[in-house]
Every structure is written in structure tokens, then in C-alpha cells.
Queue: 3 jobs
Job 1
Amino acid sequence: MLSAEEVFRDVSEASQTTADPTNIGAAESDLSLRRKLLSPRTGLSFVVLAAIMLLLVTRFDIAWSETWEAVRTINLGWYAAAVAVHYLTFVFRGARWRLLLANAARGDEAPPPLPSVLHAGRIILMSWFVNSIAWFRMGDAYRAYVYSNESGASFARSAGTVLADRLIDLTVVVTLMSTGIAVLLIGGQVRPPLLLVLAAGALLGAVAAALLVMRLTHRWVAPKLPSRIGRAYRRFHEGTMGSFNRLPLVFGLGVLGWMCEVGRLFLVVKALGLSVALGLVLFVPMANGLLSAIPLTPGGLGIVETGVSGLLQLELVVEAALAVALVDRTISYLSIILTGGAAFAARQLRSTSRVTAASPSRATAASQDEA
């Protein structure tokens, strides 16, 4: 599968072409990035992951016929509602990222153009697709690249807004997870795993520590860096720290985005004719978010399914828990491959068209120079 070094090299090369008025250099970098993302190694990695999952599945005593029966009798109306609610998250996430971009550019004399809410949501969808097929959450870098490529904004500052978006996401996840834990404890129906409770607290501490390190680095380390690296870091710092304005609205949009994920799980449970405690419905998607953020496999493949089904077994039998986890992942993973892949492919086709259209004119210009 795609390595971190290869993606960052392509993204870095592409980010350096945004000043090209014809955008041909960026278009050619798009093609290079596409070839690596859709390389045979990516497909081979999925085959290996499927083999590992098959091995794990066959080692447990599970009545797969009961799981299949639950999936086969799913209520398609509730399932369609779950899909719709899931994709509503990109509206709220797009609005939040657009707000962060506006925050980061507040001091600019000529700020770069902001994407519309829907277009920002589409870029996030494409980044989720890249995260689903590439290691180490390369979709986050891809998101910054696409915006800087389209707007002419600094790649480093764009990456800073993406980091701020991720840090705010973690804060929202920990807040909602804590709420879910409180509901579970008050209800007394299910006791949440202590390990995840501790992990949530540790993540919140990590967010605070990361921001503190950035402030200290900006003050003490950045001035000593070589000019080019120092300039890039200052823009990255501006993008990250400058995003933290109008926080109540930013946080509220984050909560709405994650509540769409809660709604998706609730509707999937309804579609399968099952019942789960409200606190668990709130807790599980947050745990899902934490697990998918672990860059061990693309999109948390294999990790999320195991973790979510394990948490649901606090209240459901293993076959029902697996049915919920697998159906939920057809929306949160497989559908992202399809819709995000389609958006990604459409963008690459436009890039190909720009390269093709520009090739004759570049050849003519070269001939004239020789003459």
C-alpha cells in the first residue's frame, strides 16, 4: 500500500505548483498521486487484510447463519435513513472546516477564496476515501493539498487548519464519550470498559499537550530554524492556532457532525430490529471514531469492526453485535469507498483534461522557443 514518504513527497511537490497560473504542474502531480493511491500494492494490502480477518473469524465459535439472517431481514427504510443521516455529517463538517479556514485567514490583506460548505464537505469526503485506502491517515494531507491547489493558499497553513480540525474532533469525541459513559453509569444497565474511559482522558490530555508544544516551539524553536523551514512552520502554526476562534460555533458544528454518526448507528440498530441502551448508542460511535483514528490499517479496517462488535456485546449476543457492526460499516466504510472514490475520480478526470488540453499549447511554445 501507499507509504507515508511517497504521499508526502507527492503532496509536497503538488503544493509547490499552486502558483502556476495554468495549474498544469498541479494537474500532473494529481495524476502522480492518483497512480500511487490506486497502485497494485493498495489492492494487495486489502487482500492481506481480508486474509487476516478471515483467519480471526474462523477461530471463534460464531453462528454466522444467525448473523446473516439478521442482515437478510434488515428494514431497508431504516437503513436508507441511516445512510442519509451519515452523509449529513459532511455538511456540518464542511461548514466547520470552512469556518476554520476563515478564522486562519482573518489577518490577511487578500485572503484566499473559501470553498462553499458543500464543496468543503466534498473535499472532506475525498479525504475520507484516501484514508480508507492508504496508510497513516494520508487523507488529512490530501485535504490540505486539494484546498491549497484550488485556492492558491499556503499548503502549510492549510495543513494547520486540518490539524486544528482533528484536535477539535478529538475534543468533541471525548466530550460525547464522557456523556455516554455518564448515561450508562446513571442507568446502571451497562458498565463501559475502563480502558476506553482512560484512553478518552489520555486523548484530551494529549490535545492540550500538543497545543502547548506548538506554542513553545513557535516561541523558542522556530526562530532558530533555516529560513525556508521556519517560514513553512510559521504558516503551519498560523493555520493551527489561528483556527481557534469562534469556538462555541466551531464546537457546536462538531457536535452536530458527530451526532449524525450517533444517529446512523441508532438507525442501523432499528433497521435490524434490535434494541440498545441510549448511552451505548452514544458511546460506541465515539469509540469507533477513536479506533478509526489509529493509523494501523486503512480506515481502521479490521480494528473498528472488532472493537465495535465487542462493545455491542455488552448488551447484545455476539451474532447480533456482528450484524450491527458489519451493516454499520457498509455505510461508514464501503459507501465512502464508492462515493468518495467517485468524487476523487471525477477530480482526477478534470486534472487529466487540463493536462491534455495544455499539452499542444506547451508543445507549440517549445517549438517557437527553438525557432
Note: The chain has one domain: 64-350.
Job 2
Amino acid sequence: MAAGGGGGGNQTMYRLTAPTDDPRALGEGLELLRDWAGAIAFDAPSVEAARQEILREDRTWGSRRLDWSWSRTATPAELRRFYAAIYQPQHMAVIAIGDLDPRSTLAAITARFGDLVGSPAPVATAALAPAIEVHASGSGPALISITDALDRGPPATRADYRRSILAWLEFAMVSARLDARAADPAGPFAFVGADTLERGLSPSQFRRWAGVRDDGHGDRLDEAITALFRELAAVEQRGFTAAELAAALAAMRTAREARATYLRDATPDVIAAEAATQFFARAEIGYWPFDPEAERAALAQVTLAELDRDAMAWRADKHRAIAIDVAGPPGSAPPTTAHVQALIQAAGAMP
């Protein structure tokens, strides 16, 4: 039996691979999953071993944008409180894939997980607030990163699904506009990028970043910050063009055709991830199997005016986090938060 796992900021998936012709292996695997779901003890030696592993990985793969300092002081009691609050059965799905008898497999899952009772108390979360962080990294080009958190739930209805498609088109057009700016050899950008982070089937974060060009003629960080936020302000205030929409629609059709092919040839891991996504989204439409009819119907009705209205409303449903990493010798002073704020305001895109 092989075990594995992984996840991100909004989900964790635990995987077990076992022979399907051995009922004992299935039972042992379910028992192990049940322990992970509700019976972890968090004894001091295990917590310390995990702490050292995290710190070792941070030294090897460390990121300038992640703060692992909490792992040095987290106690078993704190971890148990977090575990009890987050690892609730209403937030879990058990998915079995393979040459299995559905009825007996369901009975085996129910027998082991049926006594797992959740708490009705909601989990308190910290309120989001706009944030600007500036760091001096000491190496590489200066990097500007902007992340918008979108207050949009998963597309449970066809109307929601259509809105998620509008968001994809908006993000594609912003990305293309930034690419055009980065292609200017006289401009302040060495490179740009944009992507989305999905929660369920819907984008939950929109991220853009730009590396500042170092051409030997002085610091261009202020120029890059101003140019980047001026582009965002232009979208939020004036919207898009018909040519941008046509290009985004063509790119989206190509991407969705590739996704349909990917899902048709999916591995068990992919099937499990898609099944969990649909389960938690409670979607009346879904990506598994791929829904080309809903896709075509939504794309056929997209209008530029609708996209412009949606983009102009971004400020109403986002929390914006801005991170700036500045190259420079140790001890050099990065720009202050107030200075960055003033540049953003001058560009007309203050969050």
C-alpha cells in the first residue's frame, strides 16, 4: 500500500493506493484514512519531528514570500485546536476509484466513517484588510505582485457558471494587455505574468506580477509600479476593447478543448480531484464529465458591455494584497509603504 498527500491554501487531499483484489487492503486503507480524519493525537515527539521537517524544507526550498516562523513555536495544544476546528466531516469527501463493488465499498466506508460527528460551531476567521508589504531580498530583479481575493462562491447554477466564464475572459484580457506592455523594449517591465487560483470551479484569487527591468540607467521601480497600476485602473474605469474580447474568446475555446481532452484521458488522481470538487460545490453543472453544451451557450451570449460592468465592479468584491521585493545590498532601505501607496493613488488604482 502506498500513501501520499498534498494540498494548498484551501484544501488537502490524502491518497492511498491499494490492490483491489484484497479486501483486507481496502479495509486497512479506510482505517488509516479514518485515523487521519479524526483521531490524530498530536503528541509532542510527533509535532517536533514535523516541525524539523518543515524547517528543513524551508531551508532547501524556502520562499521569500512565505513566513514559516509560526512553525518554530506552534504547540501540540494549538495544533489540536486547529485540527478540531478544520477537520470536520461536513468538509470531507471519501472517494474510491478502481475495480470495486460499489455496494460493498460504500458499506465499508460507512462502517468506518459513520461515527465521525462534526461540530455545529462555525470556525472564526480573521477579517481581511488591504495590505501592502515591501521587502529587500538582496538578489534578482525587483518584483511587484498583486493578488485580488474574489468574493465569489462556486458555480452551483448555470448563471454562476456563466459568471465564472466571464471572470476567465476578464483575466485573460488583463494578462494579454500586460504582455503587450512587457514587449516594449523601452518599458519598465522585464517580464509579467498573471494567473488565477480556483476554489472549487470558480476563481477565488487573481494574481498579477511584474519584474522590473534593470537597464543600468537607475532604479525603475517607481516607474514600474505606476505603469502596472495605471493598466489596472484603465480596466476598472474604462473596460476592454472588442479586439481584446475576440482574442480572449479564441484563447478560451482552445483552452477548454484541451481541458476536455485532458479529462477524457484522466488518471484516477485527476478523477478523484474532480469528483471532490463537484461534491463540495454542490454543482448542478460540472466539469466531470465536461459540459460542452453549457460552455457553448455561455460563450454565445457574452457581450463587451457585460464584461466592462463586471470588471468595473472588481473593487467592490476584492481584498487586494500587494507585495514588492526589492533587489539591493544587505541593509539597503526599500521604499516605504506610504511611498508605494502614493504611487498607486497617483496611478488611479488605490485599493
Note: The chain has two domains: 2-113, 131-347.
Job 3
Amino acid sequence: MKSSSDGSGKRGCMWIFWALVALLILPCAGVFSIWASRQSRDGKFLRKMINDLKERGAPIDNETLLAQYRSRTDPSDAPAWQQVFAELKSTEFKEWCKGIELFDPTVEGTAWTDSSWTGEAAERNLIAKTVDLRRRIHELTMKRSAVQFLQDFNGIQTQLNEIQSMRDVQRLLSTEFQVAFADRDSKACLASIEAQLDLALVCREDPFMVSQLVNLAIRGIAMHNIQRAIEYDVLTEEDLVSLLDRMSSEELPLSRLSKMIAGERVIALEAAKNPLESGVFEEANKPMGSLGSIVGIPTNRDIIHLLEVFESMEDLNVSDIDQLRTLAASNDANLQSQISRAGLAQMDWILTSLMMPAFSALAEALVRDVVRERFIRHGLAIRIYQKRHGRFPENLEQLLDVGLDSRVAKPWGGKPFGYLNRDGEVVLWATIPQDGPITSDEPPEIEEESEESLRKWFHLRFRAPKQ
């Protein structure tokens, strides 16, 4: 009897043990089953999205992106550009650049007077030493061809050495402009400005956001130099008309948004296929330690979220800068709201949250470029009007006389640029797109050339022609 009782007790304990195990395993199995089912469903939807992209002819991986890039670029000028880059990196060139603020970070900011400036001797020496180099740069930029530099794409690890070298070319051309500007050499100023604008076109087909941001920076410096030439009345009427015609008909970087999206989308898809090799998640995973290699892998839903963001940006009317700013702000707000409500599902937003800040920065840079371009066109038109009529226009509506409709070419916010012609003071201004107010009714009180003022305002004070 005792052994039978002991056996029953042991069997009861085993039943209890397995019941407890089942209570632990079944919920986990249920959660895993739900997760696996969702991943499968999301995977089917993701494959459909990728197939739709493929049918539209959009790049979906490194190979198709490289093929598209090669079809839109010309490799014939690449060796000549590579020679230029090599000379700019040479020890001899670096020696020539000593004492020049644009090249030498140890030099303090430039101090200007009517007849000289800090670093003048060093800059004139550089220009004298680089006559042949600058001639070749001008010949290359005049072609306005999209040059094929990149031979291989590897997602986020793609090297962009050439686009970075373009910064040094821009610095040399800006030095060239400064010397011509100081000499009031209108022809040389125009040639340098046009070379700088053309330089921003050399890598225009690069499908990566960082390339286009560098192009925007190069273009921005060219615009700043045009503004100085307008402000101090260095250019002839013929030069001004030439630049206004060019800028009125030229394709803006904003219109290349779809190309940038194509490149970033491929980076995202490649990162999703090989998240640990891509390096995209390295920073995000650092706080997680060894778990990062697991938690940092994007889910199918994460990739779907990001592709939906790309799709919304592709549908933009690129002529509407307010729509672009609104969409960027809306995407940011929506992302933060979704993440805050996601709870444990925040894994579904890793890739999207890493990419969205870059898109917001790109949107602001593109809007700023459009507003700056419209601002410079107004400045050119005002100078043309002044040269033709012997006086400045009373209001911006009078610029119709020189072919500029200020009702169309507005800054962000729908309000026209600010303009004042009063008591001999002639000023054009606008706020730079940001979270602040739209253009004010009165010109801002700014400290000229200060970083804070340049960050907040486009501001052009028309100075009397130098006698």
C-alpha cells in the first residue's frame, strides 16, 4: 500500500511540474507564433513593395543603383578631375595655401577694408601659382557634364572621396573670386562665379544624400559670392543679365530629390539585408552591449515604415517649398508619436528613426537653397533695374520691367521678400527657413558677416557704385 501511495505522489508531482512548464511555455509559444505570423505577413507585403519598385525601374540594390548611375554619367573627364584632386592634395599646394583662411584653420577670420584684406598677399600668391591648374578647372566645369567617379557601391560604406575633394576646388575658386572682386575685374568675377555654379553640377547624379548636401554647400558659397558682387556693384549689366537668365532657367537641386531618395532607399535595403556588416546600427547598438547585434536587426515592418516615408517624399510637388517643410515636420512628428506609443514594438522603428533626422536636415537644406536662389535673382534684377533706369525700383513689382515676377518667386511662408528703398537706403531681406517667423516688414538689425545673422537672415544692402 505504501509503495502504491508513493508512486501516486510522484506521478502527481510530475503532472504538476509539467503543468507549470506548460504554463510557462505556452504563452511564450503564443507570443512567438504571433510574432512569426506578423513577420511572415509583413515579409509578403515588403516583397510586394520591392517588386513594385523593380517594375517601376527604381534601383533596389547596389547593382541596380550602380547601373542607373553609370547610365546617367560620363567617365571621360574623370582622369582629368583625378589629376586636379591630386594636385590639390600635394605638399606644394598645401604650402602655397598657408596663411589663407579658406585652407588654413589657424588663420583668423578675414578683416576687410576698401583696399586690402587679411591674407591678401597669400591669396594673390596662390592665384599666381595656380594659373594652369585653374585654367584646367575652368575648362572642365564649362562642360557641365555629370562625371562618373564611383566604380562600386557598397551601401553606407561607399567611399565619396571625389565629392569631398570638390570642396578644395571650391575653396580655390572662391580665392580666385576674392582677388578678382578686390580688383573690380567684372569679367574675372563672372568667370569664377560661373565655374563655381558649374562645379556643383559635376556630381549632380551622385545618388547619395551626403553628395547632394556637399553640392548644396558648394552652390551656397557660389551664391554668397554672387551676393557680394551685387552688393558692391562689381558686375556689368551684361554680366547681371547673363546670371539672371541662367538662374531663371537652371534646374534646382530640389528637383533631384527623387535621385537622392533612390540612393538612400538602396542603402536602407542593403542595411536590412546585412545589418551587422553595414555599420548602420553600430551607434544605436552601443548601449545594448552584446544584445545589440540581435535587437539592432531591423524587422520587416521597420523597413516597410521607411519605404513608406520614401514614397511620401517622392510624391512631393518639388516647386512647393512649403509643402516640403510641412511634410518633413509631419514625418518627424508622426515618427515620434508612433515610437512613443510603440512600447515593446519600438524595434519596428530602428531603421526609420536612424534615417529620419537626415531627411529633415536635407529638407531644410533644399528649402534654404530654393529661397537663396530666389533671393539672389531678386538682387540681380534690382541691380539690372538700377543700371537701366539710373535709380533703384520703388517696390518689387517694378522688377517685372526686367523680367522677374516677385509674386511667383517668394520665400517660404507665402510672403514676399522684404524690400526697402528709403532715404538712400536700399535693402532686400528674408528670414532663412527655420522655426522662426516669416519675413518681417522692416529690415532686421544685423551685425554684418556675423555667424548668427548669416544663420537667420538673407540680407543684401545695395551700396552705391564705387567712383
Note: Residues 57-235 form one domain.
